[in-house]
Amino acid sequence: MAQEVARRSPLERALDAIERVGNKVPHPVVIFLGLIVLLVVLSHVFYVAGTSVTFEQAYVSEHVDPSAEQFVLGVEVVVSAYLACTDNMPSGSAMKLGDVLTTRSGRTIEVVNTDAEGRLVMSDVIALANEDSVDAIVDIATLTGACLAALGPAAAGVIGTSPDLVEQVRDASVRTDEKVWELPLERAYRPWLDSEIADIKNLGGESAGAIVAALFLAEQVGDTPWSHLDIAGPMRVDVDTAWRVKEATGFGARLLAEVAAHFRVPA
What we know:
- The chain contains six helices and twelve strands.
- By secondary structure, the protein is α/β, with parallel strands linked by helices.
- The chain is globular.
């Protein structure tokens, strides 16, 4: 999927798996984009929203977007890290509206907005994580402008299929002063993602964008306990604020390490 998003770009794309081995644990945990047993990081090398550019700040500096990948875990667990790298630049061969893409898991996605590409890349990484039969997935990404609009730069949105795992993330948030606010995984909005030509669309509805994006990811997760952090707001600040310095904040680094340090297999 990273190749589809950045089709024929001169930049290299990769889905890299990194394993850091600590003391063996009886239940490997998946943490996505920065966490426990499975760390999955969504990183745009350069981001310009493809052909669906809709607002003046439609690009994010390559120094800012990888915010949450900039940390090192020091906990006594086995960590598998997945780094999904891509760019999203327009060209004659770029992904376009109306394309139907096939994910690693075999599901098909109708592209109705090329600016909703992060979730496309993440769908493949989630599928790869599930192939490792992990006990939980926690993903973190600068996913939606809707979450930034709803919560501002002070807090990230958290949402998931496992109340126990979401609670672990919220507890870690309190201990690390990396604020999160829980959003509902409202299944009533799922029909907004229905497609007539594919299993699902990559965007749907005119509201609740952060929730709809989470519903899209939830389709890829299956039965694995899952929690999603949307850090589009706190990924950067305009001025120094408490422990967060101007520009890229590295938000999520301490939170994820804290979840890893106190992780328990979700009930």
